[in-house]
Request: fold
Amino acid sequence: MEYLIHLAILIGIYGILGLSLNLVVGYTGLLSITHAAFYGLGAYVTAILLTGFGVNFFLAMLVGVIITAILSLIIGAILSRFRGDYYALGSFGFNVILFSIFLNWQEVTRGPLGIPGIARPEIDLRFMIQDLRIVFSSNWSFLILTACFLLLCYLLSRFIVNSSFGRVLKAIREDEAAIQVFGYHTSYYKLTIFVIGAALAAVAGALFASYITFIDPSTFTLNESIFILAIIILGGLASNRGALLGAVALVLLPEALRFVGFPSDIAAQMRQVVYGLLLIILMLYRPQGLVGEYRL
Amino acid sequence: MKKSIIWIVIIVVVIGALVLIGQKTEPNTETIKIGFIGPLSGFGAAWGEEQKQTVEIAVDEINAAGGVDGKKMEVIYEDGKCVGKDATTAAQKLISIDKVKIILTICGDESVAVAPIAEKNRVLMMAMWATHPGLTGAGEYIFRNSYSDVGTGKLMAETVNQKYQKVAVITEISDVQIGLRDAFKKYSKSQVIEENYPPETKDFRSYALDLISEKPEAAILIPNSPLGGLAALQQLRQLGYKGPIYGNYFGEVNDVLKSPEAQGMIFFTDPDVGDNEIKNKLFNNLKTSTGNEPNFKFAVAVTYDSVYIIKQAIEKVGLDTGDLKNYLHNLKDFKGVMGTYGFNDKGDAVGYVPAVKEIKNGQVVGLDIGN
Reply:
């Protein structure tokens, strides 16, 4: 059961990452490959505040979200000068830079040694009500917490895409020049959604750091950005349900392959080969993803 | 119609995956299940596979000789890829699906991430060859059959402190190397000039020129990639550095041994694997099954010993992990490939120390400093 809860928590975290990236890539059409960097930034800020300063998790998460939002505002402003493939390449560059900071700013991040012993979240209301202190130390309670954040992100995401703001985003994706003719400053819209996406990724990062209790730069590489992108492409671009489905599929699929019964000598390699093959087959026969409405 | 087919496929796949994952394995009382989490794919597979083969050899031997208290040992292998996240997923699966009470781990990152899960579930964890400083005292149920980078760094500092006031350290940015460098700096009484380089670096001239301009009395190279270390060493010499050079394990690599620039280099490396009957038997068995001598001699030695330590512990106190960890904390006289040794109250192995060696005329010569 603990294993299923563990997987459910990972699905929740990747679900938030998928939903947030979908706002940028799926709805606005900006091919960003820097999401793992914002995910990492949220994780690192939370981890440093929890281990170094004993700050409450929720406050640490909030600080992480604010710092990520500010940084993503700067990055987004620079990226807004690029279009199409150049945008993807530019965002790739920022992922490399932030990864490099996680790895090399050793006085703060401990570099490749990583940060162990990150505390689980707790809500301490003893100053108001006697004995009211909730610690999310069990995986069950952490799953509930993750599910709450996932639900909030889902509702926020749905609100955004159904609003007039969301319709402008979709219009930018379809034909940016046309919407500019109507007097919309598309760069503001693109920047806003980029910052919102990054801030939500920081929420996922904070949850990840506190759940695994250990982070190191290897979790926030370019590969992770591509993995998150794969989640939304597989699930279906421009679909919130698709992002969640993608997270479920990409977290569960490699785990299910553990139980297929490959001989132990080749099990690890076969898992990866079959996993890759399944993704290729899916993209061949369902290029718009499982429930997507838009293709890159 | 098409949409409903897609949804049916999705539901079938998800339910199928959940059924596969959630299938209950009845606890088999006839066997003793042990989990293994190591790098079986990716960059660490070179040593992960060798350590896995070593576990297989040890378990086959034990089972052929009647098992442990009449029960067969069974090992469930999971790929941790030397990545914390993958290792924790593997650990959760081993603990909650396979119901293992003992987990063997390999890499530092894997072990540090798995340790809190093992501790919380009262599962005995034995890290084999992981030198990450974060494993010392990581929990009552956490043991490490290896030395810590802190020990190597301290030894390095004590050696250098005796002779030099100002030393230069060039370190490749990776977990083991940074751990070693930090430990060295902590214990060093000399002035330390530092240069850190990213993995894959081939051109070290700018680092070397920087360091030479500071006029250090000695240089210490801490690479992860041996060939990167050799390039750094050669470029230091080519640019006119004439002082002594110290290094980490990379001194043992053939290309380094043969290099004229490396002659006289003193290096700190894995503890020597004793020349005893158990070691000869193990190495012969590995050669028979793989066709080669083991590449990671210390790693396979502690891996083999770890399986036998667990066997001995179960035979002495049974399968209760509380009793097992108490037994291991008090174990001081296990006799294995690495000689006679045991564990301290922080779970680290005590009884062997990193070796200090020198390259002389293309050969490795042991020095007495560390022993």
